[in-house]
Amino acid sequence: MRDSLLKTYFFATALMLLSFTAFASDENTETEGGYDPVPVIMHHISDSHEWHLWGKGQESVGVPLPVILWTDNGLVSFMSSAFHHDDEGHHIVERKGQKFVKIHDKIYQLNSGSEHAIFDDNHHLENGSRSLDFSITKNVASMFVATLLLLFIFLKVASFYKNHGVAAPKGITGVVEPIIVYIRDEIALVNIGEKKYMKFMPYLLTVFFFILINNIMGLIPWIPGGANLTGNIAVTLVLAFFTLIIVNVNGNKEYWGHIFWMPGAPWPVKLLLMPIELVGVLTKPFALMIRLFANITAGHIVILSLLSLVFIFKSVAMSLVAVPFALFISVLEILVAFLQAYVFTMLTALFIGTAVAEHH
Amino acid sequence: MYAAIGAGLAVIGAGIGIGKIGGSAMEAIARQPEAYSKIQTAMIIAAALVEGVALFGVVVGLMGLSN
After folding, report:
1. How far, rounded to the nearest angstrom, does the alpha carbon of residue A186 sit from its chain's CA centroid?
2. Are residues A300 and A317 both part of a single domain?
3. Which of A103, A135, A167 finishes a domain?
4. How distant is the Cα of B59 from the closest Cα of chain A, in angstroms?
């Protein structure tokens, strides 16, 4: 019995270690005889118009994603495969009489009358500008998948309660219910108080599970995971912005009184505190945004750097060191995924609590 | 290059901060073992906040790197 358990563990570990070879980098930028990991890592954590699977340069294989641009001539849309894997601005895609090039995963529209892209000495495009980009990029596609997953899970959970009422949960509900109860009892009730916590539970639950699911999906190295959504500062900006709106729209007289005219302090201190507190209204969600973005992105960069060690030293033997280390860091990153979702939700509940607190 | 030095300095701050938090959490648990889970929760929250601040520094380092 112990023997077969040991064999199971061995094979499971071996399989897990093997899965990291899927990370093996494919965009190789050769410096003088060396391997430069920085562009590779940056490519893996940034957004992209194509979901890259394997291969490099012209032979790369990926899932092309729609490019949707709002230009002066109206809406232009095409699949990113129209660029034929060109990232340097050479291949021109022409739609509705306008020319588009892709440089470092950003799409530029060439000024009218230009025949091809002209670069200045700093490799910046001279004769083009960016149009409004509403493309379904890798991050957007990943967010759609995460949303479908969330809907699938929570519609199941809701239908369980509709069919069975308040009963001992079975199946996926059994996994989700303790988390929801924890958020309700330890985060919302404690911070917001008994009278108003139910009003904010939908937002807190949404934020927690959205961040959690996207963090976890970002750690899975194969499609549809691995898109680093919560490591995109635009996404965390929007989440923090929602918190900002919800906290300040629900602020009662006590809350704004504390900001503008702190009670219980001598009047010079009151005057001094007002600009500090006003800035604090903005810096608290700003810190939420930076905390989530930096934690997730830094985690991905660490894992990718460890795996890049194999390519820097150009030896397979290095992988015996790098892959277990990367595995350990990945497990740590799973903890960070949960923790960051928890911290974001808890701080949001805390801020909401200060906004709706009654006078005691 | 200086971006890497800046990020390293920020990480020193995180290491010291989280080390102190962990140390005082250990002492508190040693004094009162039955409060273990409450102390652990508070420690995790404080550590996440300190790490958030340190990662401000890392973000600025990243910004210096991509130039």
Report:
1. 26
2. yes
3. A135
4. 6
CA A58, CA A60: separation in Å to the nearest integer? 6
Domain annotation covers residue A29 = no
Task: Check the CA dihedral A61-A66-A69-A73 and report its sign.
Answer: positive
Interface confidence (ipTM) of the complex:
0.82
**pLDDT tens by residue, A228-275:** 899 999 999 999 999 999 999 999 888 988 888 888 888 888 888 899
Nearest to A90 by CA among A68, A108, A76, A73: A108
Dist CA A55 CA A39 (whole Å): 16
- Give the pLDDT score at A26: 45
The residue from A135, A165, A192 where one domain ends is A135
User: pLDDT for A127-145, tens place per residue?
Assistant: 888 888 899 999 999 999 9
Q: What is the DSSP letter of A134?
A: -
Contact A339 B52 (CB under 8 A): no
Query: Given an 8 Å threshold on Cβ–Cβ distance, is B58 in contact with A343?
Result: no
Q: pTM of the full predicted structure?
A: 0.86
Identify the structural domains of chain B with CATH numbers, from first to last: 2-65 (1.20.20.10)
pLDDT per position as a tens digit, B4-59: 888 889 999 999 999 999 999 999 999 999 989 889 988 988 988 898 888 888 88
Within 2-41 of B, beta carbons closer than 8 Å to A belong to none
pLDDT digit string (tens) for A132-186? 889 999 999 999 999 999 999 999 999 999 998 888 888 899 999 999 999 999 9
Residue A305 is assigned to a structural domain of this protein: yes
Number of helices (H), then strands (E), in chain B? 2, 0
Contacts of B59 in chain A (CB under 8 A): 290, 293-294
Q: Scanning the structure block, which residue is given the tokens 């890798």?
A: A138
Number of folded domains in chain A?
A: 2
- Dihedral pair phi/psi, residue A60, rounded to 5°: -75, 145
Q: Are A345 and A187 in contact (CB under 8 A)?
A: yes
| Closest approach of A74 to chain B, Cα-based (Å) | 33
Tokens 């194969």 sit on residue: A222
Domain carrying residue A105: 66-135
